[in-house]
Amino acid sequence: EDVEPAGIQIAREWTQETPEDDPEPANIIQILQGLIKAAKRCKTKEAIKALMPLTGLVHFVKLRDSYRLHPKCHTPAMTASLIAARRLVRGPYFARQLRKLELYVLKYRKLPPSKSRTIVEQQSLLNNENIIHNLRSYLAILKIGEVTPHKFMQHINLIVLPSLGFTGPKVTISEVTAYRWLGKLGYQNKEAKKGLFIDGHERADVIQSRMRYIAKIREYQSFMPIIDNNTLEITNPFLPSGCTLMIAVHHDEMSVATNEQHRRVWVKEGQQPLRKKGNGRSIHVSDFILETTGRLALTLKQLEAQKRLPLQRQLKITDARVIIHPGKNGDAWWDCSQLMEQIKNAIPIFEFLHPNAIGIWIFDCSSAHEAFAENSLNVKNMNINPGGKQRCLHPTTIPLNNPPPLAGEEDTRGKPQLMVYGNDHPDPKLRGKPKGIKVILQERISVWRELVKAAGGNLTKVIGICKICKASQVERDASIRIAAQEQADGDVSIDDGTSNVLESSNNTCCMTRSLSQQQDFFDEKPRIQTYIEEKGHICLFLPKFHPELDPIEMYWGWTKHQYRAVSDQKFSTAKALIPKILDSVDVKLIRKFFRKTWRYLDAYEKGLDAQQAAFAVKIYKSHRRIGTVREVVEEMKKKSKDIDSILQLI
Ligand SMILES: [Zn+2]
């Protein structure tokens, strides 16, 4: 009779368990209770053996946590472990094991393999080049998120080991070993969530926009309130006369899907898993935070004072936060016009809380935020020729940095230009109609002359749009649509899709490209920026892929963490609970979130890359700045084996 290998039996049990689909356990007790439940269900010899240490661990952790609160107990862990061991009729050796086991379980969410299973061959298997090669190529063909220790173990036991002549019931590896091997091959167990995207971070254009952003923030920083690193108390900076206080106001949006899955998936280092799409109702929050008052909302006292003001001086909206409930049968999805409305209400609240201060309104650069007004200068809103179906764009001034006129040629630089024909145009059919790209360029005499020259002086060779520009426009439109859709679904993608769009390398390939590169078209501002600047404030956009530079992201993370601990996955509960959690945030916690982003700014400014910055921010907790680059490198040497990233620095 054929006996199935032990590996397959264990694998079967795990297929039914599917531990990767379980909701994320929030703490050690929850992990342990899950393991105990699984062990009781399995009833294998291994599982029953595991019950003793698991039960001991539960006793130990609960006792230790209560002893920690006891003022007279100076060794809570030691005392708790000894008592927990005694309850199971065991001695100090078992107590010491319990103390070590807690860390292992927290890290691997399992007990370590028992001694009887770790056969000698296993230790040396991973030193065999053939096996490593075989395993790497097996892992390489799996898609992101498809790698699991269970599948990996099956592959080793059923294919790799027999192929090497290892057969028999004892020559299999356990799933725990598969976990460890995955780690050695460079795989990490990550939760699918919005996080640090190392992939996009170090793209040349992204680094450039990061540096531009940091330079601007530094320029304004000396006019911002000062927060004490330790007490987190706030004071105003010294302002030379004529200078105005500046306050950074961060905006962001958060979506909570009520049936959100917290899957853990195995990915190679640097890969980021995507969240699974849910189809329930969701809670969408759009809000602002600032270091001075935390949220952009009036206190109860201020609300009372408001009521005593004459009606026309009262604020209509006293809390800038907007929560909607989009989804099936719910509100419409969040869009740019809703954000615009929110900003219109938020600015008066800011000006009430900080009269005479300038707000630095900071947004992430999602496509929704960078939406342009209907009449903005954009070649996509225009035809090549006059009239027809195209938008009426706002008037402009011909850029001063256009080529100078030739002798006898009219100088059109700095002249006002209408994008639409006047009502006195000789051709009645064109009166009030848009001029189109060609005429606009011809009115910029020196620019048109250069275009004709580039076409070899042949007017018929000046084309409306060339093949390259046409293709890149189509591709860019598609990737922006996809990015917008993903955002509406609450998904986050690693790449915005625009990195590989081929762009024309010169500005004279066609009329469309030429006009799009004219300074006034190039500088056209998003709608929200125009509005904020009209109100006398400043508008900035965060560089792409840098959620760590946005303190409000941490506020969202904190909120979701609080919510998950009590969530029952019901929409009605979430709807009532989320606003309460959001309200309960302490202003000092928000200042801590800001402090962390200041540290990131400092790290990037010192030239660290994303991984090094994340490391530095972690070891310089409760500071606004990180240490010197050399200090960070020294620490990294001590704590990390990632030699490559250190070598790059020296
Ligand atoms: Zn072109």
Throw out a few tags for this protein.
25 helices, nucleic acid binding, 650 residues, disordered C terminus, disordered N terminus, binds zinc ion, DDE-1 domain-containing protein, Nucleotidyltransferase, domain 5, six-stranded mixed beta sheet, single chain, two-stranded antiparallel sheet, RNaseH_sf, globular, alpha+beta
Write up what this structure looks like.
With 650 residues, the chain is an alpha+beta fold. Among the domains are: 188 residues, Nucleotidyltransferase, domain 5 (2-Layer Sandwich), CATH 3.30.420; 88 residues, no CATH class. The chain contains 25 helices and twelve strands. Strands 4, 6, 7, 8, 9 and 12 form a six-stranded mixed β-sheet that branches. It has a two-stranded antiparallel ribbon with strand order 1-5. A two-stranded antiparallel sheet has the order 2-3. Helix 4 crosses helix 5 and helix 20 crosses helix 21. The chain starts with 5 loop residues before the first helix and ends with a helix. 26% of the residues are buried. The site of zinc ion has 7 residues, from helix 16. This is DDE-1 domain-containing protein. One of its GO terms (molecular function) is nucleic acid binding. It comes from Sphaerobolus stellatus (strain SS14).
CATH structural class of the domain at 236-269 and 279-371 and 527-587: Alpha Beta
Helix vs. strand class: alpha+beta
Bound molecules: zinc ion
Sequence stretches where pLDDT stays below 50 over 5 or more residues: 1-23, 115-124, 192-198, 487-500, 640-650
- Architecture (CATH level 2) name of the domain at 236-269 and 279-371 and 527-587: 2-Layer Sandwich
DSSP E strands, number: 12
